[in-house]
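step: validate -> pass
step: tokenize input -> pass
step: predict -> running
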Amino acid sequence: MITKAQFKRAIERQEFSVVYQPIVVLADGRCAGAEVLVRWQREDGALLPPDRFLAAAQQHGYLNAITDRVLQQTVSDLAPTLRAHRGLHVAVNIPAQDVNSGRILEVLDATLDGTGILPAQLWLEITEGSSMETLPSRETLSRARERGHPIALDDFGTGYSSLRYLHELPCDVLKLDRSFVIGIGTDHEHPVLACIIDLARKLKLKIVAEGVETPVQARYLEQACVDYAQGWHYARPMLAAEFARYCDLAAGRTGLPLSSLSSLSLHAPDSSLASLGADHVAEVVLMPDAQSPQ
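step: predict -> pass
step: emit ->
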């Protein structure tokens, strides 16, 4: 049982930190960016993943503080890299309560102010299993999109609202939950996976596969024309300085700027069909010249 006092002390001591796990372009294996995972390094030495503390943080009223901490740390860590490589984009998982209330818009403005990071360099992820209220969340996400923030639907297919979210909320990117990926190449391969990929293609959504751990999974997803993948098959999570070096090495190996390593073109907000979950994450994906969805 995590108490309110423990959260208060953890915020004061800045015990919440983030690490970055690279994402690759499936077509050629090049580095496309990274997902940022929040962890709680407790005073007693225990390292807690987000599914161990976020629900309690919401219950005790500290979820906003953790959200703000993740945004501030991500911007602080990656601002130099984002300014140097305008093709890098960060997608941050936003709690449903912040989307419903619209609070996140003011937080984003304040966090990005003076950093040199463009709005289009910050993606907003909403989690499919969270309690989104359709009308206010649609308003918030539409306003965010007008400012240039792309919208990604995380953990797709794990809850009861997948198709409703696609129909009612603006969306540019669909993230395949690892539960669909893990069965690839086994007797437990999920027949729904191919249908989800086909649906995303018809809706002109880009696809990110999470939890890729084997060559068989990577090969299947590449042949299915999934755009991006992340997981231990490619790289472990790393600190910001190591990730920055990782990006520089990737650019050096190809002889191209990072903005040329992939071409992610998002469709226009008015053509879209259109929640903090187990992970409170940010994800970096490459797009050319940091342009807003076109």
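step: describe -> DSSP finds eleven helices and ten strands in the chain.
step: cleanup -> pass
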